[in-house]
Amino acid sequence: MSAFNLTPSDSSIFILVGIPGLEAAHIWMSIPFFTFYVISLLGNFTVLFVVSKEQTLHKPMYLLLCMLALTDIGICTSVVPKALCIFWFNLKGITLGGCLTQMFFLHAISVMHSAVLVTMAFDRYIAICDPLRYTTILTNTRIAKLGLVGLTRAVLFVLPEPLFLSRLPFCANHIIPHTYCTHMTVAKMSCGDITVNRTYSSVTAFVFIGLDLTLIALSYGLIIRAVLRISSKKTHLKTLNTCTAHICVMLISYTPSLFSILTQRFGQGIATHVHIILANIYFFISPMLNPIIYGVKTKELRDKVGKYARRT
Predict the structure, then answer these.
(1) What is the 3-state secondary structure (H, E, C) of the chain?
(2) CA 71, 91, 178: angle at the middle one, nearest 5?
């Protein structure tokens, strides 16, 4: 309880409540948080290790898998360690600087994650619609450059958010009903005008999600058109099967995020703790399942992982 006794000297300290209404169950909530986090780290670090060790996997598709693994590690690590500190040790305090840092990395890595999914859709488009030029269009160098563009985009568009927040005056109430800091949850603690924050948050969310989903839909529209031109049904299935891993990853990445956004915007009748749990699901499901999906659906990667597993 001492964590809530804010004094004037604590003016830069915020309190992350965790999951409001379920404080008594925090210790139990920590079990799935910790378990899913460990599974996510093991899976994604396994992908990074195997791809780095195997020369035969130094290809554009596996380079994209490594980028995806890095963003998955970054997303869950931005949130889970602090959440576990809240659940296990009741360490709910976080400085304004710490809050802004967490928010920046969380949002920037999420935007980067979306950029990787767009690039993976482009990779599938080239592989199916222009296979003869695949190796010349998508080289490792070009994939690395696209990754750098995605990172630059994420940093440039997310950086204004903590800068806007750092200029705002904050009220006496520093209690954030969440497990982590986000742009609008922190902005709502302010006594000042947050119109700019609201507008920028809405516009960037619309641009990133709308633009990225449009590019992915365009890629798959062209892929489906190319597949339908093939006369053999067996070839249809074989060709589409090369896309199933990416489609699954895309669905588990965007669906929880979009569902959480929609429930926050239009689900006023839903309990606060349900909103918080839905928001946290995004940070577990995708990082935990992505390496499993690609491990199961990609024979070459599965065989290499199996080789190292047998060695142990």
Answers:
(1) CHHHCCCHHHCCEEEECCCCCCHHHHHHHHHHHHHHHHHHHHHHHHHHHHHHHCHHHCCHHHHHHHHHHHHHHHHHHHHHHHHHHHHHHCCCEEEHHHHHHHHHHHHHHHHHHHHHHHHHHHHHHHHHHCHHHHHHHCCHHHHHHHHHHHHHHHHHHHCHHHHHHHCCCECCCCEECCCCCCHHHHHCCECCCCHHHHHHHHHHHHHHHHHHHHHHHHHHHHHHHHHHCCCCHHHHHHHHHCCHHHHHHHHHHHHHHHHHHHHHHHCCCCCHHHHHHHHHHHHHHHHHHHHHHHHHHCHHHHHHHHHHHHHC
(2) 60
Report pLDDT digits (tens) over 174-190.
899 999 998 988 998 88
Q: What is the C-alpha separation between 118 and 196, in angstroms, rounded?
A: 29
CA-nearest of 106, 88, 109 to 98 is: 106
119-123, 195-199, 262-266: the lowest-pLDDT one: 262-266
* Interatomic CA distance for residues 178 and 253, integer angstroms: 21
Tokens for 268, please give them. Answer: 């006023």
- Which tens digits make up the pLDDT trace of 75-129? 999 999 999 999 999 999 999 999 999 999 999 999 999 999 999 999 999 999 9
Could you give the CA distance from residue 247 to residue 31 in angstroms, rounded to a whole number? 29
